[in-house]
Amino acid sequence: MSAPHSDNLPDRIIQMHEQAVREMVEPRDGISPTPVTFLLMCFFFTAWGGYYIADNPGNWSGMEYNEKPATVAAGPSAPIDPMVMGKEVFGACTQCHQGDGKGVAGTYPPLVASDYVTGDERRLAAILVNGINGPFVVNGATYSSEMPKWRDYFNDEEIAAVMTYIRNSWGNKAPAVGKDTVAKVRAELADKPNAWTASSLAEFSAVVAKGETK
Amino acid sequence: MSNVPEGPAESRLEQVSRILIDDSSRVPVLIWFTSSVIWLLLGSLAAMISSIKLHHPDFLGGIEWLTFGRIRPVHLDIVFFGWSSMAAVGALLWLQARLCHVRLPWPLLLSGLAMVWNVGVVVGSVAVLAGHGSSIEYLEFPAYCAPFFAVPALGVLAANVKMYLGKNSQHTYVSQWYLLAATVWLPILYVTAMLCTYFGLVQGVSQAITNWWFGHNALGLWVTPIAVATAYYLIPKVTGRPVHSYHLSLLGFWSLAIFYNWAGTHHLTGGPLPAWTITVGVVGSMMMFIPVITVAINHHMTMRGVFHMLKTSPTLRFTVFGSFMYTVASFQGSLEALRSHQEITHFTQYTIGHAHLGLYGFFSMIMFGAMYYIFPRITNNEWSSARLIKVHFWGSSIGVLAYGIGLCWAGWWQGLMMNDPSIPFLQTVEYVKPYLILRSVSGAGMTIAHIAFAISVWRILSRHHFVMSGPTLFTTERPAWREFVNEQNKREEMAQ
């Protein structure tokens, strides 16, 4: 180290900058060889990458969203079990009515042991098509939530399937619903897009009942 | 502690030139660094508010400006643009000037650009809080903030290129590749992403692809290379040992440059994208094992035999912790990209745990290490208290580990529960709640650490605590390893 109080300019600068002077040398590169196991690993990852791309190319198509597109078999497809299709559609309902169909006490009405579900199928179809705004009474309890309309999201077959599913799950027992029933209700409601209220729904099902007794 | 310089003998000229170089970068680096520390505090505040809201939704619920949908993006953008990017630029300017052996060009311009960048973060944050933000993650700031970031990014690029072209060093050190590449990549990423998402250059799904191409690359091709470059400089610098293998560095840099760019689409797995784009993203993510392993080998082998220095040196302890977390978080991230893994963890707390292990455990810890090294050199002052540094280290490291491990664990089980249709959604929310409280507690630990750090920075900037008694280390006795390393270096130099 330089002598104290030196007149030499570099010495004086260095004395004032202890932080920069006490450092180790600037970093240097070592030349150790690349480990062979590491190179083998690189080959492994490259090979895996090639395999994965070849295995999941989604036909290299901008329109294919499934990495392994299913090949469509020729000939007519087997009829779809409405309980299977209904369960899939029911996914849209679980947020409010829950997976077990019990709803949320005080907020969303239950589907289990409810006359709205197992009763008149046309009234149920009407609720699904147009939605309904509370307050209304289910099994003695009042609910004031709102149910959206589903007419724009599901076709007749899907609505019929989910109706069949909720009428025959969790202990419910009621006849299956055909898609013609839904189609008829949908056609009747073509010019009535408003959500039901308890009173307008009662009016509708009274008219339906009268029509049937005629 | 004596003032006698330790380490291998250097010529007087080298020492003086280093002092002059540090002197040239003083003002800009101080401004970029100090701003970033202020943003770190504000980012922590936004983080705490968002985190508490997740388990106490009514907390500050009446204030429109602090609703979750606004304060959470503000947290993200402040820590990304404010803290991470500004800390990264500070480290970058200081490092590049040293490595090129040139004085930092245009110090006034670069200081001004820091202020422009600051204005951008302020304007953007206020706009998002006022409800003018967008839903494009990492780009929530409105479009009129773009020039505040694009112009400084180009200025930093120009300074960086100027330093490199005028360099006085023969050899290009590995850190310099990363620093140059990062400054080239940032403007490309940012300008392209803004044009595509805000100005309608592409439409629909392609906007989402661009969004995540930017979101992922902003981490991987901007802040990651700078943190890796910093660790590549600091670890051999503090230990006095050469970096293990030049060939591995080379392989690591180019594999990062080639593969990272593809990885972004793994954020959109299961979305309405052409399947091949996600397939390619998954492969790009898995190939990241290669650059990560090269860095892991290089840093570990450089440290081999001198791990006891972690007891003493704050810089080294932060940096090596960060470097270790780089390996951990990257391995986790590569596996997370796989479709089979995403089916469980996508849209769960797992992703958030991973993000913090990466940006905090890896990047921020290395930046802390860098600041502990750089601040004394550009202020000619010493850190006032080893105790504050200890609070910082333990608060940050325990905080981020509890946060990351807790949320990844919770997210994994949350994902399995959400995939089981017989489990009602509310039950998964109830399950996660204790972990969300853990998240706030560990976040508070990190916030305390940041306050300790900010106090240290305040004291080193204000000259009241001026000390001239040697470096502030965790242990105060004269370390025996210094002699050992000096001995080693002398022997190596003799051999050469």
Strand elements of chain B, count: 0
Radius of gyration of chain B equals 23 Å
- Shape annotation of chain A: elongated
CATH domain class of the largest domain in chain A: Mainly Alpha
The CATH architecture name of the largest domain in chain A reads Orthogonal Bundle
CATH topology of the largest domain in chain A: Cytochrome Bc1 Complex, Chain D, domain 2
Q: Quickly give the structural class of chain A.
A: mainly alpha
Number of domains of chain A: 2
Descriptive account of the structure:
The complex is a heterodimer of chains A (214) and B (496). By secondary structure, chain A is mostly helical. Chain A folds into two domains: 1-73, no CATH class; 82-213, Cytochrome c-like domain (Cytochrome Bc1 Complex, Chain D, domain 2), CATH 1.10.760.10. In chain A, 45% of the residues lie in helices and 5% in strands. Chain A has helices spanning 9-16, 18-21, 36-55, 82-90, 94-97, 115-118, 121-130, 156-167, 179-188, 198-213, and strands spanning 132-133, 136-138, 141-143, 146-147. A two-stranded antiparallel ribbon of chain A has the order 1-4. In chain A, strand 2 and strand 3 (141-143) form a beta hairpin. By secondary structure, chain B is an all-alpha fold. Chain B has one domain (12-495): Cytochrome C Oxidase, Chain A. In chain B, helix 1 runs parallel beside helix 3 and helix 9 (289-303) packs antiparallel against helix 10 (314-336). Mean pLDDT of chain B is 91; it is low at 1-7. The chains are: A mainly alpha (214), B mainly alpha (496). At the A-B interface, helix 1, helix 2 and helix 3 of A face helix 1, helix 6, helix 7, helix 8 and helix 9 of B.
